[in-house]
Design a protein that fits this description.
The structure holds two protein chains of two kinds. By secondary structure, chain A is mainly alpha-helical. Chain A is built from seven helices and two strands. The two termini of chain A are 24 Å apart. Chain B has two domains: 132 residues, Aspartate Aminotransferase, domain 1; 255 residues, 3-Layer(aba) Sandwich (Aspartate Aminotransferase, domain 2). Chain B has a seven-stranded mixed beta sheet, with helices on both faces. In chain B, strands 13-14-17-16 form a four-stranded antiparallel beta sheet, with helices on one face. The chains are: A mainly alpha, B alpha/beta.
Chain lengths: 142, 409
């Protein structure tokens, strides 16, 4: 599935929700299901600045595909849900594709409205970090 | 003392902003410690100033300038009465509490606090009452000492007494804590500080709309406050200072209004209070601020306080039943601030879910990071109540928190 197909799938599933709280519950549940991250990534280097709660993000290149791993503080369910959605969309694609991805699903599902502006700062920091990984590995592969 | 209860419905009618839906639900505004909402007469006063008599003040000869000047100075007089200062020359108009503290740090601090001298603050200070003193210490080598806070959120007064010494030049403490609600025993603090010859600054940002303040009875040296936390506009504050002390301090910012005469050889400075008011001030907001004072006085501070304390008690009782909830700040004397944490719930997540239910609270460290470290937490959820809040709104908060907990756990 391409990045855009994945985004369309998420947008479609969010359309089933009438209430904003149901969307939030969905994101919380994603956060709860986020697999625990390998301890080697839980370092200061992998901490994303700009998030109110702690969020770590790591990446690994397997062949020509980039895979992401993320985690948050145990209690920070929404932040973990957000990182889980981003990983779901971007992980397993080519670095160049990740770096150039247009993440339109965020606005379409109202993720930006679900988070406060300060947390949105955190959300954009997460996206920025993932794209930076994409750019760096794309250069490596070039 | 006024004993008749307030008609809260009538009070609410004066606040247009409260009558709106947020995320499809009627707004519940519990972020009053950050800023209160403004009654219609304050909003109208701003509009009337700009539509009727906007002009630069003090030097203009024309009618509009006279009118603006007299409205501006009328606010200063209202503050003098509000704080019971001895004279209007002791009322310096600032841009807010932070501005007032920085003024004292950069004038009194630079002139009268030297290398090795000590400044006492407390663990519960807002960053605004920490950082200006750290900046001063970096420049002139003075030493910052900190009064600890106990588990209930009260100052350790025995430790305070032990910290006082003949090196103490200034004690700068908050009157009421923005994060905990604790009301500090400032009368005792001022008396004991004066005993060792130290001056006292009281940060009244959270106290001024709730407590009666008589600067002469307190014998406080400096008292600072912000109007936007008192139903007034943003960008207006007061620095009260004792006249002799203010006279002994050099000016703060240089520019217009604060001078008497300027030549390239020498500038002589204006008299109090203008010496500390360089540049065109925030005239419109200062003018409108008077109506905020009138609003508070028309309701009566004792009646406002009685209502707010009943809300605090109601909210404390209502929320304490929630599984895993712990109130941070259980001092005997509190203003209407209720800070709490819930086991297994991140405060940011709680705020997002409450907001979706139309409930505005504040979460995070409340610009008191050392205090959060003291309680070994990263932040709290804070509900703070003003005169227009109701017990029905607190019921909504309880329901909202319960729903959030259910979603998150």
């Amino acid at each position: 599935m391409t990045i855009n197909e994945k985004q369309d799938e998420i947008v479609e599933s969010f359309e089933l929700f009438d209430e904003p709280l149901d969307k939030t519950q969905y994101i919380i549940d994603l956060g709860k299901k986020l697999p625990a991250m390998d301890g080697k990534y839980k370092t200061e280097d992998h901490l994303i600045k700009g998030c109110q709660s702690k969020v770590w993000l790591g990446a690994e290149l397997k062949g020509d595909r980039l895979y992401f791993y993320g985690d948050g503080e145990p209690e920070a369910q929404i932040a973990k849900g957000l990182i889980s959605m981003l990983i779901d969309v971007l992980s397993g694609h080519g670095p160049e594709e990740i770096a150039g991805a247009d993440l339109y699903f965020i606005e379409k599902v109202g993720m930006n409205n679900l988070v406060t502006s300060r947390r949105a700062g955190g959300l954009s920091s997460m996206i920025q970090r993932m794209k930076q990984y994409g750019e760096a590995y794309a250069r490596l592969l070039a | 003392m006024t004993t008749q209860k307030l008609d809260i419905d009538a009070v609410r009618q004066q606040f247009p902003i409260l009558h709106q839906q947020v995320n499809g639900k009627p707004l519940v505004y519990f972020d009053n410690a950050a800023t209160t909402q403004k009654p219609k007469e304050v909003i109208d006063a701003l509009s009337q100033y700009y539509t009727g008599y906007n002009a630069n003040i003090h030097r203009g000869i024309h009618t509009l300038a006279e009118k603006a000047t007299s409205a501006f100075e009328a606010t200063r007089s209202a503050f003098r009465t509000f704080l019971n200062a001895a004279g209007t020359e002791e009322i310096i108009l600032t841009y807010g509490t932070t501005d007032g503290i920085n003024l004292v740090a950069q004038t009194f601090g630079r002139s009268f606090i030297g290398k090795g001298d000590e400044i006492l603050i407390s663990t519960m200070e807002h960053h605004s009452n920490i950082v200006p003193w750290q900046m001063l210490c970096e420049v002139n080598g003075c030493v910052l000492k900190v009064i600890p806070v106990d588990e209930s959120g009260e100052l350790d007064m025995a430790a305070f007494e032990n910290l006082l010494s003949d090196r103490t030049r200034l004690v700068s403490v908050v009157h009421a804590s923005n994060a905990l609600g604790t009301i500090n025993p400032i009368t005792e603090i001022i008396r004991k500080a004066h005993h060792v010859g130290a001056k006292v600054l009281v940060d009244g940002a959270q106290a001024a709309s709730h407590l009666t303040i008589d600067v002469q009875a307190l014998d406080v040296d400096f008292y600072v406050l912000s109007l936007h936390k008192m139903y007034g506009p943003t960008g207006v504050g007061v620095l009260y200072g004792k006249k002799d002390l203010l006279n002994s301090m050099p000016p703060y910012r240089g520019g217009g209004e604060m001078i008497k005469e300027v030549t390239f050889a020498k500038t002589t400075y204006n008299d109090l209070p203008y010496k500390f008011e360089a540049g065109t001030p925030n005239i419109a907001d200062v003018v409108a601020a008077r109506t905020a004072i009138t609003f508070i006085e028309s309701l009566g501070k004792d009646r406002i306080a009685a209502h707010e304390l009943s809300l605090l008690q109601y909210a404390t009782d209502a929320l304490q039943g929630i599984d895993g909830l712990r109130v941070i700040g259980t001092a005997k004397n509190k203003v209407s601030v209720l800070s709490f944490v819930i086991k297994g719930v991140h405060h940011q997540d709680l705020a997002v879910i409450l907001d979706q239910q139309g409930i505005a609270v504040r979460t995070g460290h409340h610009c008191t990071q050392p205090l959060m470290q003291r309680f070994d937490i990263t932040g709290t959820t804070r509900a703070s109540f003003a005169v227009y809040n109701t017990t029905a709104e607190i019921d909504r908060l309880r329901e909202g928190v319960e729903r959030a907990v259910k979603m998150l756990k």
